[in-house]
């Protein structure tokens, strides 16, 4: 391989292909679009060929691009395996502390934990869940090495690098047999208690925007929480209507223990990703976590249809 090719070239190239556009790749890698374009141009100059063609529908790989993409994926995978081998030689277990929003703790983290048990058994995983503001504060203070959750408001993301993994909507759920199911109109929620996201949660502004778009005032009879444990029990035992990230209640909806109202919540779709401190250098442990999270999210989005 040409010695001028750096890891950043391969990471940017693979991310552009994964996201389907330079703009989204720039967002997920926390870089500017000119920086992404410049890195791609450097790589194309080094290999002496155009790697992709950009059009209205995104990017299309050239034949040379397809060839390099396969090798780039293999190289990054080999790097992860090498780091795992290094981890296997650690004399003592190495701890990594990860914060996960409730939807991530339920849906993604079991897969991440299973992958890490196979690839890096000496990596001791510590998982904390909670609201977005709480977890990002712990990330900034150094009490957490990474956080997996929704992209927050700009003021909450200062000094944090965000790599997008997938998109997730807010679901509006009730118990089976709820009276609102006879006429599932969100304008009827004023007649019922509402379990509503807290002001510190990443989904609060999304839910507020949805209600504003529909001309619905904020519910007066509401309990504000992001506790999945409370919501599951309270909604099952009452006529409450619950606004919650779809991942938190995915299993309950699939099993029929809760019902998602057939309302359009596309306005609440938002990116879920891996967050680290922007100035934080990657260690072998963090690189192994990043690889496991990427693999787990890819497998999940391939096997599950997000609401």
TrEMBL record:
One MF annotation (Gene Ontology) recorded for this entry: DNA binding
GO terms of biological process kind: 3,4-dihydroxybenzoate catabolic process; positive regulation of DNA-templated transcription
Matching InterPro entries: HTH-type_LysR_regulators, LysR_HTH_N, LysR_subst-bd, TF_PcaQ, WH-like_DNA-bd_sf, WH_DNA-bd_sf
Domain HTH lysR-type, residue spans: 5-62
Keywords: DNA-binding, Transcription, Transcription regulation
Any Pfam family the entry gives: HTH_1
Gene Ontology CC: cytosol
Classification via PANTHER family: HTH-TYPE TRANSCRIPTIONAL REGULATOR YBHD (PTHR30419), NITROGEN ASSIMILATION TRANSCRIPTIONAL ACTIVATOR-RELATED (PTHR30419:SF8)
Family statement: Belongs to the LysR transcriptional regulatory family.
Name recorded for this polypeptide: Pca operon transcription factor PcaQ
Organism, as annotated: Paracoccus contaminans
């Amino acid at each position: 391989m040409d010695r001028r090719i750096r890891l950043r070239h391969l990471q940017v190239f693979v991310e552009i292909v994964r996201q389907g556009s330079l703009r989204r790749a720039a967002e997920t890698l926390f870089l500017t679009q000119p920086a992404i374009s410049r890195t791609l141009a450097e790589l194309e100059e080094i290999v002496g060929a155009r790697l992709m063609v950009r059009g209205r529908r995104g990017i299309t790989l050239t034949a040379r691009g397809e060839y390099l993409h396969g090798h780039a994926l293999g190289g990054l995978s080999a790097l992860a395996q090498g780091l795992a081998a290094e981890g296997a030689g650690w004399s003592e277990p190495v701890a990594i502390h990860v914060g996960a929003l409730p939807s991530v703790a339920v849906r993604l983290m079991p897969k991440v934990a299973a992958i890490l048990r196979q690839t890096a058994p000496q990596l001791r995983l510590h998982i904390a869940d909670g609201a977005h503001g709480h977890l990002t504060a712990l990330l900034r203070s150094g009490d957490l090495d990474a956080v997996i959750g929704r992209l927050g408001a700009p003021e909450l993301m200062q000094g944090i690098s965000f790599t997008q993994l997938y998109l997730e909507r807010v679901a509006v759920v009730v118990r089976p047999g709820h009276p609102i199911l006879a006429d599932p109109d969100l304008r009827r929620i004023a007649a019922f208690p509402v379990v509503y996201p807290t002001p510190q949660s990443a989904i609060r502004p999304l839910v507020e925007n949805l209600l504003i778009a529909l001309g619905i005032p904020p519910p007066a009879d509401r309990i504000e929480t992001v506790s999945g444990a409370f919501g599951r029990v309270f909604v099952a035992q009452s006529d409450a209507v619950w606004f919650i990230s779809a991942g938190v209640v995915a299993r309950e909806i699939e099993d029929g223990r809760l019902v998602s109202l057939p309302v359009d919540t596309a306005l609440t779709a938002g990116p879920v990703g891996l967050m680290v401190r922007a100035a934080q250098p990657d260690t072998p442990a963090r690189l192994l976590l990043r690889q496991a999270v990427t693999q787990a999210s890819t497998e999940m989005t391939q096997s599950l249809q997000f609401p």
